[in-house]
Design brief:
Elements (H helix, E strand, L loop, with lengths): L2 H13 L13 E2 L2 E2 L13 H16 L8 H14 L1 H12 L9 H9 L3 H19 L4 H12 L4
Helix pairs in contact: 1-3, 3-4, 3-6, 4-6, 6-7
Amino acid sequence: MELFDKCMVVIFAHEGGYVDDSDDLGGETNYGICKRYFPDEDIKNLTKERAKELYFGHYWQPMKLWHIWTKYDAVLQIFDMGVNAGRERAIRMAQKIVMTQQDGIMGPITGKAIDQYRGFIEKYKDARRTYYRELAEKRPRNKKFLNGWLKRVESTHF
């Protein structure tokens, strides 16, 4: 099984099925694919296979996580953050930790720095937790999602 497929098992466990919560800025969502970012998709009738295609084309490929060679849990953490909070934000968060250029683009320099950084996973998880807490503080309607986001960070592993 390829790394993308392994990651998708975890992503789908986090994302679940169809939801239309008025407090969710993404709007109507199914398998984590939301109407806000995919306005031409039939979200209510979205299949898991189509969601996987969208994740591959709109997240996995543009994030270029194959530049991380040895830390597959880091790949999963960054991919999961990209799915949940934006590709560039997820990569910039990693770049800040490993002190590479924070351009939101994963390349060989950032990938190598992540591979060589001791304690990367815990630092990245801490950064995710901080991001979600700040998001809940900035927008009170997000507070109801905070516990789920924090549980998501902890359950993002192979």
